[in-house]
């Protein structure tokens, strides 16, 4: 039977009679985005698209590792000792990322950019390039040396950050979530209260659908080998709620018989390999859902559940057992949403 996750309170006005689901889609941040909202007709599509694109463009201009002129890449390329006042959004995400790096003892690490690039998950060379080979131990050790997030001096009050030298920030595990939050907030400012925002699989729902139902979303279930039971389907009511899922079955590559997922353990320098098929996190803010799903994936099931419990995080872990079957673990905050 489908597991249904619903927030404790469903409140607020219902969309007016005659409202219908409006939809816009596009591409940004190397992925696709989609926004649904309740409105009478398509009259505001141009205005809404412009607002969405402005927010996504801002995140790209500040936080992309694909754009050499982004504020993030300019910080990454700056010589040791360079002090910079960061733009507001970048500073906000950096503060959150540094907090989670401390809280997760480095399982989530925004300063892991050198490692991300080395394993082919940065702009170039990509793991998909012909002839790409995973790095050897010496290269990993060399890259690890530049990944200490505590070496970065950051003053949240003045938004000034100091490049310690060779440190490469990578916000790919948190920026999409932040982009979702920004888009939803901007739509709220335009008077659009009933909306479902998605960027690259990270989602945030606010208000209700025109039919008075919450924005229902089905969590993607990891693939399972033949002969094994599929994990239980899970449906979430995204009412003032975000969901993000990290999974080993997307964007992973096979090398020498090993599956190398794009979540890296910055403490060892290696791709994570402890059998988590996916971790889904529900949170009021998409930035946190996005970042926590990576943090918990890297931590692994046992340490990840403990970490999520300590911070009251609603998470669903799907573990690939040695015999090939999938087992699920829900944290207590997630159990509460399941009723
Ligand atoms: P997922 O949907 O699987 O969470 P994301 O795209 O949100 O994937 O994040 C994966 C990206 O995050 C990687 O491509 C890499 O750039 C970055 N990353 C990988 N490992 C870590 C880590 N331990 N801490 C922070 N960022 C990471
Ligand atoms: Mg993520």
Automatic annotation (TrEMBL):
<dbReference type="GO" id="GO:0016740">
    <property type="term" value="F:transferase activity"/>
</dbReference>
<dbReference type="GO" id="GO:0046872">
    <property type="term" value="F:metal ion binding"/>
</dbReference>
<feature type="binding site">
    <location>
        <position position="294"/>
    </location>
    <ligand>
        <name>Mg(2+)</name>
    </ligand>
</feature>
<feature type="binding site">
    <location>
        <position position="290"/>
    </location>
    <ligand>
        <name>Mg(2+)</name>
    </ligand>
</feature>
<keyword id="KW-0479">Metal-binding</keyword>
<keyword id="KW-0808">Transferase</keyword>
<feature type="binding site">
    <location>
        <position position="173"/>
    </location>
    <ligand>
        <name>Mg(2+)</name>
    </ligand>
</feature>
<dbReference type="InterPro" id="IPR003374">
    <property type="entry name" value="ApbE-like_sf"/>
</dbReference>
<keyword id="KW-0460">Magnesium</keyword>
<protein>
    <recommendedName>
        <fullName>FAD:protein FMN transferase</fullName>
        <ecNumber>2.7.1.180</ecNumber>
    </recommendedName>
</protein>
<keyword id="KW-0285">Flavoprotein</keyword>
<dbReference type="InterPro" id="IPR024932">
    <property type="entry name" value="ApbE"/>
</dbReference>
<comment type="similarity">
    <text>Belongs to the ApbE family.</text>
</comment>
<keyword id="KW-0274">FAD</keyword>
<dbReference type="Pfam" id="PF02424">
    <property type="entry name" value="ApbE"/>
</dbReference>
